[in-house]
């Protein structure tokens, strides 16, 4: 690759001695992904790669965002378990596709009941768990293995009430852990690389208001934020800009409203690469649940069946896995083509990995 350099659009063109008929589109994208990831460490500003065939024909072009998504899809698998908190505020799990209601404590300290938890999040490989405890003051990260103990919390909040402390955490496909502090005096968004012991504050230059909820997309390129301002809670989508050796730190840029008509967004969950399941209210309206595209458009087709007083929802990028919610009936699930079913009347805070 010597002698090749990105153009002024930060696009690198790589000539190959191949004709378009010799390269399948999926194989071309795979090669472009490898080139982009390999060179990104050397050229952090690189944004896209174009593979050019013999005679100058374009074989394919891949942007950084699509490369992240392609790489994630290559490593993705359906969730094995659904996770939630039981009536004793311990982290428990049950098989994702289960039709039963039995759950078992998580292996490790989060499931042993040593601390009452307010929320839990499990990494996408289902090897590590994060829990918020101490009435929202402390974030704990532990392996999903029996034994072990709580280490020092890598993120703590001094917010005056539980609702003004740490949000539910969220894992991205790289294994980084995200959480926001809702402390009115020192609000902030934080990321822990590989769920480690060191947290880094994330710059959100376009933010106007306080982050109330955080969910990172499976591709690791986008983040959904519920932002409170002037008595409203609105949904925004931003793009994650990685440091990747530039020394700039991680930031969330290009925040844009994704469901402008919803004034009180109370729960969100990614339900695919580019869509979210959102619970919220329009001005003067009743609570509703609907799918929203990242560009803000509402998806055609049926919304999930009505459910009252939804406080949390869990959807998966894998559509075969049932929707799960925390409502006034506790934990409930919606298998495909069925009605909502009760799972655990005392359960709270349901999540799939991520």
What brief labels describe this structure?
single chain, 354 residues, mainly beta, Methylamine Dehydrogenase, Chain H, 2 domains, 4-stranded antiparallel beta sheet, 3 helices, 40% strand, 6-blade_b-propeller_TolB-like, Lipoprotein LpqB C-terminal domain-containing protein
CATH fold naming of the largest domain: Methylamine Dehydrogenase, Chain H
By CATH, the architecture of the largest domain is named 7 Propeller
H/I helix tally: 3
Sheet having the most strands: 4 strands, antiparallel
Counting DSSP E segments of at least 2 residues, the number of strands comes to 26
Give helix and strand order, one letter per element, not per position.
EHEEHEEEHEEEEEEEEEEEEEEEEEEEE
Q: Supply the helix-strand structural class.
A: mainly beta
Q: CATH superfamily of the largest domain, please?
A: Prolyl oligopeptidase, N-terminal domain
> What is the gyration radius calculated from CA atoms?
21 Å
Low-confidence stretches: none
What is the CATH C level class of the largest domain, in words? Mainly Beta
What sort of overall outline do the alpha carbons produce when their principal axes are compared? globular
Pfam families: Gmad1
InterPro entries: 6-blade_b-propeller_TolB-like (IPR011042), LpqB_C (IPR018910)
Protein name: Lipoprotein LpqB C-terminal domain-containing protein
């Amino acid at each position: 690759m010597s002698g090749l350099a990105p153009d002024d659009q930060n696009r690198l063109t790589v000539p190959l001695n191949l004709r378009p008929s010799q390269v399948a589109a999926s194989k071309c994208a795979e090669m472009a992904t490898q080139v982009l990831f390999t060179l990104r460490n050397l050229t952090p500003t690189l944004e896209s790669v174009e593979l050019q065939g013999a005679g100058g024909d374009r074989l394919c072009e891949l942007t950084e965002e699509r490369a992240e998504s392609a790489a994630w899809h290559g490593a993705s698998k359906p969730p094995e378990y659904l996770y939630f908190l039981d009536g004793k505020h311990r982290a428990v799990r049950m098989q994702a596709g289960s039709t039963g209601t039995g759950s078992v404590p998580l292996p490790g300290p989060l499931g042993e009941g040593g601390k009452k938890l307010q929320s839990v999040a499990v990494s996408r490989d289902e090897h590590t768990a994060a829990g918020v405890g101490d009435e929202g003051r402390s974030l704990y990260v532990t392996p999903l293995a029996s034994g072990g103990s709580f280490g020092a919390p890598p993120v703590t909040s001094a917010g005056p009430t539980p609702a003004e402390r740490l949000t539910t955490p969220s894992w991205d496909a790289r294994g980084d852990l995200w959480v926001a502090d809702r402390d009115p005096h020192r609000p902030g968004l934080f990321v822990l690389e590989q769920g480690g012991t060191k947290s880094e504050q994330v710059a959100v230059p376009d933010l106007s208001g306080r982050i109330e909820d955080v969910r990172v997309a499976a591709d690791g390129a986008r983040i959904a934020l519920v932002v409170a301002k002037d008595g409203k809670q609105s949904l925004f989508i931003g793009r994650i800009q990685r440091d990747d050796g530039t020394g700039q730190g991680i930031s969330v840029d290009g925040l844009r409203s994704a469901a402008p008509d919803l004034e009180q967004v109370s729960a969100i969950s990614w339900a695919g690469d580019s869509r979210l399941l959102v619970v919220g209210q329009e001005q003067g309206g009743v609570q509703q649940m609907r799918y929203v595209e990242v560009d803000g458009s509402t998806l055609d087709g049926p919304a999930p069946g009505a459910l009252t007083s939804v406080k949390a929802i869990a959807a998966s990028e894998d559509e075969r896995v049932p929707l799960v919610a925390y409502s006034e009936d506790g934990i409930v699930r919606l298998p495909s083509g069925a009605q909502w079913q009760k799972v655990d009347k005392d359960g709270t805070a349901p999540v799939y990995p991520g």
